[in-house]
Specification:
Lyase, Ornithine Decarboxylase, Chain A, domain 1, TIM Barrel
């Protein structure tokens, strides 16, 4: 019914619905492993899938170390007992530090680590029992979290000389490359990130003669620029489901595995628009409006307005009638998963093969 997406009995779906195409997920996993070759170099982010089923699938493929953004993700995914879970979001309160302690004790077979970028963060983690250690979060240009290469001497000294924590390594998320389409420009930015990492390595060795730690770098827009740096662990995020924004990277061979099925509920011939039931509650709502979705097989159609339950599409010559089904590529896959309690799995034949629960969507108390 849709190019490259086969769905049987489409009229039986109650839209909007989050669909995950199994063959495309498997393609993405195979593609990533073939690019990196050594699965021990992979530390992917779990924030896109938030799923125990998906994490177990990756563990079965030999990918045993993962990052999370929330303690809730950490706790839910700890049930799968991966080798390591890294909280790639700084702990900033005693309440969260206490909850992290409970998770560590609840699932002790997994190693738990956290990123830090200040002595404040280290102090909150310092007395936790069983924590595996910390990664210095290096700000290489995104300026969201992390410490710059020129301002980390006190933090480094505190970790190495005054804290109870082990330095597990260096963490650098170069998210400032997001949506930079020119791969030469992104390559140059990656080279600058690598330069800062090597400077930090020199600081660590010259001051403490310490070199047994990991370097975890990159996101979906940058990880492949570090493939030739064999000592670096790679940390893509959105790769497993992919999305319309990431697909603008023509050099990568991932496929969009997660889409949203919707339906045309009304149209306005005078305005040249159609209204679909894919509102802000159903698909990525953090990109600019026109980037929140891309309709498959309708290349000229553009989202021009969105409310909770409605999406208004400027047709620009495309044809959509009331009752027609539409398939939307999300602009940002990671923000779609938590909008649904589960996604519907579609197999290679176009049939429903099960559900993928968004296990880490809700807070566990």
């Amino acid at each position: 019914m849709f190019t490259n997406y086969k769905i049987n009995d489409i009229e039986n779906f109650e839209t909007p619905e989050h669909l995950i195409f199994e063959s495309k997920v498997n393609h993405n996993i195979s593609t990533l492993i073939s690019m990196v070759q050594d699965v021990n170099r992979l530390v992917p982010h779990a924030k896109t899938h938030k799923s125990k089923e998906m994490l177990n699938h990756l563990i079965d493929k030999g990918i045993t170390r993962h990052k999370t953004s929330t303690i809730n993700e950490l706790e839910i995914l700890g049930e799968c007992e991966p080798q390591e879970l890294i909280l790639s979001y700084p702990i900033a309160s005693k309440t969260k530090a206490q909850r992290l302690q409970k998770v560590i004790k609840k699932f002790p077979k997994t190693n738990y680590s956290s990123i830090v970028s200040s002595i404040y963060h280290v102090d909150l983690l310092n007395d936790l029992e069983g924590i595996h250690g910390v990664y210095i979060d290096l700000d290489t240009g995104m300026h969201r979290t992390g410490v710059s290469i020129n301002e980390l001497d006190d933090l480094l000294d505190f970790i190495m000389s005054k804290s109870n924590l082990d330095l597990r390594g260096i963490h650098a998320y170069d998210g400032h490359m997001h949506a930079v389409k020119n791969d030469n420009e992104r390559s140059s930015l990656a080279a600058e990130t690598l330069k800062d990492i090597r400077k930090l390595q020199e600081k660590i060795y010259s001051a403490y003669k310490f070199e047994t730690y990991d370097i975890i770098v990159g996101g979906s827009w940058s990880f492949h620029f570090y493939l030739d740096q064999k000592d670096i662990k790679l940390s893509p995020g959105t790769w497993i489901y992919w999305d319309a924004t990431n697909a603008e990277q023509k050099e990568l061979n991932f496929q969009i595995a997660g889409v949203v099925l919707g339906q045309v509920v009304d149209n306005n011939e005078h305005e040249g628009t159609a209204t679909i039931d894919i509102g802000a509650k159903a698909i990525s709502c953090d990109p600019p409006t026109e980037k929140r979705l891309k309709l498959i097989d309708k290349p000229n159609a553009i989202l021009v307005h969105q409310n909770e339950e409605h999406g208004v599409i400027k047709l620009n010559g495309e044809i959509l009638n009331i009752g027609d089904y539409v398939l939307a590529e999300p602009g940002h896959a990671c923000t779609v998963t938590p909008k649904y309690p589960h996604a519907i799995k579609i197999d290679a034949n176009g049939d429903i093969s099960g559900k993928i629960n968004s296990d880490a969507r809700d807070r566990k108390i």
